[in-house]
Amino acid sequence: MASYDGDCFLVPGPVRMNQACLDAMATPTITARGPEFRDVMAELNSGLRYAFNIAPSKPEKKNQSWAGDDDYKVVVVSGSGTAAMEMVIANRFRSNDLVLVPTNGKFGERVAEICSRFCNVKHIKYEWGRAFDLFELEQQLERKCYEALLICHNETSSGITQDAPALAEMCQRHNTPFILDGITSIGGLPVHLEQWGAEAGVVGAQKCTAGPSGIAAIAINSHFIERSKAIREQGECSPTYYLDLISALKKGDDDQTPWTPAINLAMGWSKALNTLKEETLEGRWNRCEMLSKGVQNLFSHLGFELLADPFQRSSTVTAIMYPEGVDDTWRSDLKNKYHTQVIGAQDHLKGKMFRVGSMGETTVEEMVEGCKRMISCFKDHGVELPDVEVESFF
Ligand SMILES: Cc1ncc(COP(=O)(O)O)c(C=O)c1O
Question: What is the pLDDT of residues 47-64, one digit of tens each?
Answer without folding.
Answer: 999 999 999 999 999 999
